[in-house]
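Quick start: read one record
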Amino acid sequence: MTANGTRVLVLNSGSSSVKYQLLDMADGARLAVGLVERIGEETSRLVHTPLAGGGAKREQEGPIADHDAALRAVADELAADGLGLDSPELAAIGHRVVHGGSEFTEPTLVTDEVLEHIERLIPIAPLHNPANVTGIRTARALRPDLPQVAVFDTAFHTTMPEPAARYAIDVATADAHRIRRYGFHGTSHAYVSRKTAELLGKDPAEANVIVLHLGNGASATAVAGGRCVDTSMGLTPLEGLVMGTRSGDIDPAVIFHLARNAAMSVDEIDSLLNKKSGLIGLCGDNDMREIRRRIDEGDQQAKLAFDIYVHRLKKYIGAYYAVLGRVDAVAFTAGVGENAAPVREAAIAGLEELGLAVDAGLNAERGDSARLISPAHARVAVAVVPTDEELEIATQVYALVKA
């Protein structure tokens, strides 16, 4: 299937929200960005910002019943700027889909069969895939003639070798229930690892990079020559690093202990580990800026939360250094990774014997472009590389529809 236009609309459909960006792939320019939130509530809100022509941000509040109504409202906002879904310049709509299992290894043109397959993955992604499916169905109804492409968070990680992807449980049980490590934030890790190689002047196929995607959700990935060989998230996004509200790695027996001794249900334990743990469970805040402010005021609970966060991060850096054998760079990205200089400094501190160091002056500088924060003599580069998942999705979608 081919398309004549150069624009791609990227949709990220959540359970009660839709984030979107319209990009022109002729030059990578963003034409419009927006967010619909609190879908299904009386207090729904749409924020739309046209970027082409310098238009002003527009906001509207009021009930938006469902995703169908939300996407129709988005279409109306885009049309008001001359960027409507009926534009011949629109080549495709790209959908972020969180879980593609082990079956979807690349961007995939959505067909009825593909959509049914994504739905069959809902049992291992109950928080994410239902909303992704809803967004795809609505977009197909609005533009049935337009290519719709699913880009999967898990796809980049399907190159993991079996020793990294398998859990050490009964093989028959694991296979019957699709239990393995899938990994997430794949579009971010793919983009950042490639941009880091470019920053070093290397071919991505020759660079070994540890990517640290640190936002409210956080994950680490070992990338060897442009391919994921290990990643911290697993069957779900709960495994791995300490996150804003998620525990990350924990002894599985904690679940049995809480069920037997605290009379907690499976749903209550699920909520505890996913929504009431991590930084917010440790100190009541999941905003790193607020945690640092509290530390500066002498708050010991905030300091403990920060230290636990950094300890886990440092363990993964060391582990992935061992997995890769040779590391060319450690790259920090996403909200915390790009903006929290104290996190970067603390995570690298003490790793000088591994060739890692941070230049305090460079680390303190702020900027929107990829940059090195390691001293010139460092054997391994340390970089800050702003992620751009929407551009990565749009790039993959456009390459597919033009193929």
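The chain has a mean pLDDT of 94.
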